[in-house]
Each structure stands twice: as structure tokens, then as C-alpha cells.
Specification:
The protein has 125 residues and is α+β, with helices and mostly antiparallel strands. It has 1 helix and 7 strands. The strands form 2 sheets. Strands 4-3-6-7 form a 4-stranded antiparallel beta sheet, with no helix packed on it. A 3-stranded antiparallel beta sheet has the order 1-2-5, with no helix packed on it.
Length: 125
């Protein structure tokens, strides 16, 4: 009984390893794609905000426009190569509600700001 169980576990591990290797080897499946992560952490006196923009597609993206909303001026990234990541700070006048990214290739992604979950007992440590 134990030999069969161990063999099943071994087959499962090998199968999962092959699947992970194939996913890594195949890389991104979409030609044009953006990962967007607007982050806002309201501390007691300071608000930490940043926006991560990453090209997760197979091809370069041009004229990547990062619009923060409100009266702020958008950022423009002329070229974002596959796998390249840029971390930006929203300028003054941003409404800090959501961020929209558009590109020459037709990518259009809008996301609200993500905030961390405050853990009880973590404040003032």
C-alpha cells in the first residue's frame, strides 16, 4: 500500500515539474500585455504610493501612457521592452483612485489602487 502511494506522489511531482518547466519555457502567451499595480499605503503621517507597470507580453510596447487621474500630468514611457518593469510615483494632483495605462498597440488597462491589509497589533511597533 505504501509503495503505491509513494509512486503516485512521485508521478505527481514529476508531472508538476514538467508543467512548470513548460510554462516557463513558453513564456508570455499574448503579444501585447501590461501588468499594472497601483499601490497606496496610508500610514499615520505619510501616504506611500507607487505604480508598477510591466510589459508581460512578447513584443515591445511604445508610448506607454500612465494616467493617474485628477489634474495630474500623465507619465509617458517611450519604449517598454518585454519583461521590463518601471516603478513610478504619482505626481501632485493625482486623485489616487485608479490608474489607466494605454499604448500605441491598443493595450488599455485600468486598475484601482491596492491597499495593504492592516494587521491588528502592527501599528506603532
Amino acid at each position: 500500500m505504501k509503495k503505491g502511494f509513494l509512486a503516485a506522489i512521485g508521478v505527481g511531482i514529476v508531472t508538476m515539474t514538467i508543467a512548470v518547466i513548460l510554462l516557463i519555457a513558453l513564456g508570455p502567451t499574448e503579444e501585447y500585455a501590461v501588468f499594472l499595480d497601483p499601490f497606496k499605503d496610508k500610514q499615520t503621517l505619510v501616504t506611500d504610493t507607487h505604480v508598477t507597470v510591466q510589459n508581460v507580453g512578447r513584443a515591445p510596447l511604445t508610448n506607454v501612457k500612465v494616467d493617474y487621474g485628477g489634474s495630474s500630468k500623465p507619465d509617458l514611457i517611450p519604449l517598454l521592452k518585454p519583461g521590463e518593469k518601471v516603478i513610478l510615483s504619482p505626481p501632485a494632483g493625482s486623485n489616487l483612485l485608479e490608474v489607466t495605462v494605454t499604448t500605441d498597440q491598443g493595450v488599455n488597462v485600468t486598475k484601482p489602487y491596492r491597499t495593504p491589509i492592516n494587521m491588528p497589533g502592527m501599528m506603532g511597533s
